[in-house]
Amino acid sequence: MRLVSWNVNGIRAALKKDFAQSLADMETDVLCLQETKAQDEQVIEALSVIEGYHIYCNSAVKKGYSGTAILSKQEPLSVTMDMGIEEHDQEGRVIAAEYKDYFLVTVYTPNSGSELKRLPYRQTWDSAFLSYLKDLEKTKPVIVCGDLNVAHTEIDLARPKPNYNKSAGYMQEEIDGLNNLVEKGFVDTFRHVKPDEVKYSWWSYRAGARAKNVGWRIDYFLTSSSIIDKVKDADILNDVMGSDHCPVQLDLHS
Fold it and tell me: I want to staple 32 with a disulfide (CB 3.0 to 4.6 A). Which of 73, 106, 172, 231 is the partner?
């Protein structure tokens, strides 16, 4: 079973940049998307060229903003949108697909913003999202993937010192949010499999950052600790182009 997560920075833009070929090359059973930047009907229309997948999408109230989607070869047992909290359910940031052995949750975590204006909201979100995941976990294990908008430790970004507590994505409050997930039993699969590997999943469009590999690892697959033994491999596909993020991948034992 192969799962892939990718912040496409606009699904319609991605489809003009070899998205369909990239999807075919990845040979994934489930693809989770973040930042689709389109309403549900626009996502469905854009993905009409893709065959062999059931498609589920969750769009923001604000048009052209945020949004998530799941493409699954196998039809899930159930699919739910959002966390059931009015404050957090306006931006299409969460989809949960239930399979036989686990829930698969894709998330596009709110960015604190260049001036950190949304940092207080981000902390509220992180707390609510952790509670939401733990509630799901009462039924069966959880795999959560997506753009978490935080680099966890120094190895996860090219320039940790100048960014620490100055830049969105590497504020201590954001790091604490991910620490809380780990402390509550969610395992960072990439670090579990490759504890010392330096690989990034996002690069700024500025100053040729991707060509220089001045990046950040902010896209993740986390699993409930109870199913970490099902993880066969975890990787970051940083040769796949088409967005300022690259896909991240999780392979599970059948």
Answer: 106
CATH number at residue 167: 3.60.10.10
Question: How many whole angstroms separate alpha carbon 179 and alpha carbon 182?
Answer: 5
Sheet order of strands, 2-7 included: 54-58, 68-72, 30-34, 2-7, 248-252, 231-236
Distance in angstroms (rounded) separating the CA atoms of residues 116 and 185: 28
Domain count, the chain: 1
What are the tens digits of pLDDT across the range 49-98? 999 999 999 999 999 999 999 999 999 999 999 999 999 999 999 999 99
**Phi/psi at 220 (5° precision):** -140, 160
117-164 residue pLDDT tens: 999 999 999 999 999 999 999 999 999 999 999 999 999 999 999 999
Ramachandran area for residue 10 (φ above 0: left; ψ -120 to 50: alpha; else beta): left
Please state whether the predicted TM-score (pTM) of the whole model is above 0.85.
Answer: yes
Domain that residue 137 falls in: 2-252
